[in-house]
Input
Amino acid sequence: MTSFDDDRNRRLFDSPEIVDDYRSLEGLTPPEEVLFERHIPLGSDVLDIGVGGGRTVAPLRARADRYVGIDYAPKMIEASRARFPDVELHVADAADLGQFDDASFDAVVFAFNGIGGLYPDAARYRCLDECHRVLRPGGTFVLSVHNPAGILTMPRIAGLSPLVAARRFAREGLNALNRGQKAIRGTRLRGEGYVMDPVHGGLVTHLASRRNVIQELTAHGFEHLETLPSTYPRRRPNLMAIWYYYAFRRRHD
Output
């Protein structure tokens, strides 16, 4: 297995350029809207992990009796606090939620494929154990994970000239080739693994198939509730689902 720098992602996410990118993001994706509505009851106590620039703060806070957002990048928390000065936000690591008591939340959210940025595997396992610990029995865990089979996306070309549209298709073709080469190297065949995603200058990213995600979370005490593709509500083949969104429930002990 290829070795990566354990702290590479944290340093990147704390850089001003990436903080600015995340600060500019607004609104939920269609799968998030559905899963939050179906699986996070109004009045819940919600822990939002990897809050970034604050994209999920307002919609989750609207559903919550108590809302807490955390991120391991201090500058991300600074950006979120600037937008939401009256919200409970903390610098904290998803693999160590020791500042929170056992069974203190009804829902935990780890949006935007954040769990895939934890490296190595042991950090992800600790995160899953910690999420299970801070959830009340029957509580909900909503997350998204990159799909190793998802190598093809359709660029947005509405309103563009034929030349610009052709350039976008060509660029996406190159991106798909790059993703396909990574998959061929073993990640897709195994159903999970780490790759160096070129986004933001190169993020260490864990990818996992739906079966692998469900197996892993089941082994950590969760029950699978629902899965939606990144292409939702459109019906597209697995090759076009760059990631999947999941809802799990903490099993009753």
